[in-house]
Amino acid sequence: MTEPKPYHRHAYPGVHTFQWSARAGDADRELTVSGTCPACQCAMTHSFGPVQPLIAKGAGFLGRRKKPDEPDVWNMSCACESYHQPRPAQRRGCGALLTLAPPPAHLTAEN
Predict the structure, then answer these.
(1) Does some domain include residue 1?
(2) How many domains does the chain have?
(3) Angle at Cα 102 formed by Cα 78 and Cα 4, nearest 5°?
(4) Which of 11, 12, 50, 79 could bond to 46 as cystine, CB 3.0-4.6 Å?
């Protein structure tokens, strides 16, 4: 077994593909992403929830809209359970800030 990489808060380049799943509660939908962190190579799972279905609302922030060819992206920090020194208390992961490819449309659509 290799030594865990040290904790380092940084933006990890690229858009990364993970496995998405959905779980519907009473009235809320929770999306879960799982896979391997590209920075530290540790297994991780993270939940986004409750998640509102992705629908167009308003004119966006200060009237700015994303271009039609821009994909939706989701951002998160590494959520692995490995211990990366000197990680701050109450934190998980190696510190990598990840950009995820969006979940499949069928997981975010209104039913």
Answers:
(1) no
(2) 1
(3) 15
(4) 79
Cβ(49)–Cβ(28) under 8 Å? Answer: yes
As a whole number of angstroms, the distance between CA 88 and CA 75 comes to 20
pTM: predicted TM-score of the whole model, two decimal places? 0.72
What is the residue range of 94's domain?
10-49+70-108
Beta strands in 1-111 (DSSP E): 10-16, 19-24, 29-36, 43-48, 74-77, 96-100
Question: How many helical (H) and strand (E) elements, i.e. helices and strands, does the chain have?
Answer: 1, 6
Distances (CA, A) of 53 to 25, 28, 50, 77, 107: 14, 10, 10, 22, 9
Tell me how far apart the alpha carbons of residues 34 and 73 are, in angstroms, rounded to a whole number.
16
Burial class of residue 102, CB neighbours in 10 A (0-12, 13-18, 19+)? middle
CA 74, CA 103: separation in Å to the nearest integer? 9
State pLDDT tens for residues 75-88. Answer: 899 999 988 888 88
